[in-house]
Design goal:
Layout: H1 5-10, H2 17-44, H3 46-54, H4 63-74, H5 96-125, H6 131-136, H7 140-169, H8 182-199, H9 202-211, H10 217-222, H11 224-238, H12 243-288
């Protein structure tokens, strides 16, 4: 489709509703194609994806486990030595390992394609913005991508080892033996990483909500205490039920919330300045007439 970007930019005429849908369809198709390509690449690198990335946090030699254990030796406690007893994962279905391989490849493709997906949807939305709005939101895709990957890495390197240690060591009775299914293990790992990746998008979400007038710094300050309660609840949902993990998640989320308040302040000040300049120009124009 020779699309209507030039038509829009030159002001020849706005796109119809059906043309918008057609354009959106092509953006979605290209995003899905990027996910599929990266999924195939992840599928081919099976050993690296599973042995080096997915299964690493359960091993004592994983960097987080080693660093925490070293810290434990310094403060003279063994409580910080995580995952010191490696365990085997099981697959209870004949095609279990194959379907797990495909599912993991899909998740990997989605995570790797996230910046491109954002960029595609940004290209769709960009023509609807004024030139000054386009300047203000320049770099939004890069910032959102960096925040997402920062959240994924936070979940992978900090929360995952703690979750694995707690959930695999917890027992209701010594007569019950834990035999962890690989799908259960990967589901826990991926949900933690994706959840923290999305939660780390809070500053970007705040930016756009302030732009459209749904959020103000005053509103965020007023409900700061309520937000902390929500953060604690979210932390409890995405982490195992131990206090240390929840605190570990709460601190960066509270920090992101405070950053979001400052971002909202800056956006609101800019909007007020633009409105004042607009009114001043209108008054000057009316006076000259």
């Amino acid at each position: 489709m020779a699309w209507n970007w030039k038509k829009w930019k030159k002001g020849v005429g706005e796109m119809s509703f059906l043309e918008h849908l057609e354009e959106l369809r092509w953006h979605i198709i290209r995003s899905i194609l990027a996910i599929v390509i990266l999924m195939v690449i992840a599928f081919l690198f099976k050993n690296f994806i599973f042995d080096t990335i997915i299964l690493a946090p359960k091993e004592p030699v994983f960097i987080t486990n080693r660093l925490l254990c070293a810290l434990g030796h310094i403060v003279n406690t063994d409580l910080l030595c995580l995952n010191t007893h490696p365990f085997n994962l099981i697959s209870i279905k004949m095609a279990g390992q194959l379907t797990t391989h495909i599912a993991v490849s899909m998740v990997a493709g989605l995570i790797l394609a996230f910046p491109y997906i954002l960029w595609e949807f940004w290209r769709f939305l960009q023509p609807a913005l004024h030139s000054n709005e386009q300047k203000q939101t320049r770099g939004a895709v890069l910032t959102a991508s960096l925040l997402f990957f920062a959240g994924v890495l936070f979940g992978y390197f900090l929360l995952s080892p703690l979750s694995i240690h707690f959930l695999t060591r917890y027992e209701v009775s010594s007569d019950v033996t834990n035999q962890i299914n690989i799908r259960s293990y990967i589901g826990t790992l991926s949900s933690i990483c994706l959840a923290t990746g999305l939660i780390f998008e809070l500053p970007i979400i705040t930016f756009f909500l302030t732009k459209i007038g749904l959020v103000t710094p005053k509103f965020m300050k007023k409900y700061r205490k309520h937000s902390i309660v929500v953060i604690v609840v979210l932390s409890a949902i995405i982490t195992p039920p131990d206090v240390f993990s929840q605190i570990l998640v709460c601190f960066p989320l509270i920090f992101l919330y405070e950053i979001s308040i400052n971002i909202s302040k800056r956006v609101l000040k800019k909007k007020e300045k633009e409105h004042a300049d607009f009114m001043k120009d209108n008054n000057t124009e009316n006076t000259s007439k």
